[in-house]
Amino acid sequence: MSLIVEGVHHRYRATDPPVLAGVALRAEPGQAVALVGPSGSGKTTLLAICGGLLVPRAGEVTLHGAPMARCMLRAQVSWVFQGTNALLARTVLDNVVVRGLAQGHGRRAATAEGLARLAAVGLADRADRTAGTLSGGELQRVCVARALMGDPALVCADEPSGQLDAAATDAVVRSLLGSRGRRAIVLIATHDPRVATACDRVVELADGLLEAAP
Q1: Most exposed among 75, 103, 167, 168, judged by the fewest C-beta atoms under 10 Å?
Q2: 134 and 162 in contact (C-beta within 8 Å)?
């Protein structure tokens, strides 16, 4: 079972030039794929379409054989955005378990999984700290831990290292790529060559087209 993108075309307005022009892509469970390219190449748009945040003008996206819209409803897709997107006044653990609670898990089960996710990203000792007291790299790892709650089939990350130094970037990338052990597909849109080379595949976009084989 895979993430399959077929014949995706997209433009934001009818009078605009196409951002994506017939993109096809396939990613397998346990695989990390970096989407790279210059600004305006369409990588963020493609990531948003792959992750169900944007509906393409034409084409189809399926995850494990199901249309992406259905997978979004089943919480099989999670996101890590540039910047931390954290609840700074709440504890680190609260920031992580909120996804489990939103999925309908009980507080006890969500807390147990949240602690395990924090341990996996090296932040078990920060669980009771207020999120606003953490560094930028630590906060981004908190967001990764939250994104992995519930074992999503697809993890999408949009420039996750954009505001981090080299050491924090390495920690965040290790945390993200660790989800492959649970057979997640990881898609990362990035300008950072350190992030791209850590992935299993690199797909380059230029003028709305893929420069590498699907």
Answers
A1: 167
A2: no
